[in-house]
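In the previous chapter we treated chains in isolation. Here, by contrast, the input contains two separate entities that must be folded as one system, with a combined length of 425 residues.
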Amino acid sequence: MRKQIGFIFLIVIFGSSKLSAFTLLSSDPAWSADELTIQVNNTGCPVDLMTYIPAALEVWNVVSTAKLKLSALETSSYTIANAQSFSYPNVAVIGCDSSFSSTDTTVGSGLYDYSSGASYGYVRINSSGGSGDIGNYGSTTIKYILAHEIGHMLNLGHSSDPTALMYYSFSSLADVSLALDDIRGYTYLYPKSEFEGDYFLGCGLIKGASSMGMGSTLVLFLLPFLLGILIRLKASRTTKLS
Amino acid sequence: MKAFAVKRNSVLGMGFLSPYVGELSNSSSSAKGSFVELLYPISYKSYGNAFDQDFFWKFSLLGLLPEATDEDDSINYYQLQLSASLLAFESQFYSLFYGVGLSYEILKGNGGSVVLNNGSGYSTFQRPSDTSTAQYFYLEFGFISDFDKWRMDTSVQLDNPLGDKRSFSFLVEFLFGLDQMGF
């Protein structure tokens, strides 16, 4: 018995995990849709954004506990200038912006806002030709910057966890991936609920009823076992009769 | 032949759960690792038999242990898991199982704001102020190793198994029969 208690005590002592450190840009509601198609305007960009954006979106799309699914569509209808003046309710826009100062080292910025029941978000990428121009960077860095700024566009602020994608800086990138803190932040904003209309076990064909309560949930959970017991009971009766 | 420990009525223990195996990073280089984060579930399992079918229920809690305190405690994280598994194969020393689980992930923020570096200066960011809960089913399969007085359950939990956001967690639990613990 003492050994067991000692073992549990050791786990408690050494078993501490990191505290969540994510923040939000706005305490208002986030994007309300389950699927967000981001409008990508490549006008004036020194690199083809559509080469990197699908990979940047995939970084966020791996979060199985979040309901939001991101995709991108190339467009010329939505401009970054109009997005900055909040002209597109419930539309997310990514585009290049040459108005950054040539000495500004900022490579991109992302923003989320909510007003009068609508969400607004955009990512503007530095195409000034100066120090922060996106064309100065390699593919992993571009993907990382896009994934980070998309995080802002989804209403995530900076994290104080230096390993998080949403930390304000990075060093010698090997890959682009999320830390547990990013996943918790994204899950906080877009929690998946298979009892309230999200896909059951991720299957695109089965959606839970939006009004499904706790009782129905437990019935659904117990259903496979109840069925198994019923089948065995029936088999047992058949055997006895024969 | 000794009695197989899995058939003790109830077991209690703790373990390690590594979420998002192969997907997460815990370095500033954003490099992915296999088991980069560990959570510590406290689990209770109860064995049962109905119509010649061995099964057990599991109830696990994560997030109850103290977390590192380099930040303030403005966000609390808890996870509750309820699962039911069937024993698929049994031998004297180990047993295979598979089942379905229900997970509740609860993130509770205490609000407020924090000033953080913004690259070119400092900005004020909002701390979460609500409680957010993700609810989802998962599949679980693994094996039980019996060491007579205790047992080790090793399993894989598959989240979103039918969708394209598939991820899996690796779980090892060390469990003791409540009768062994004096209950």
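Helices of chain A lie at 2-14, 49-61, 80-84, 139-153, 180-189, 214-241. The first strand of chain A starts at residue 35 and ends at 41. Compare these points with the single-chain example from earlier in the chapter.
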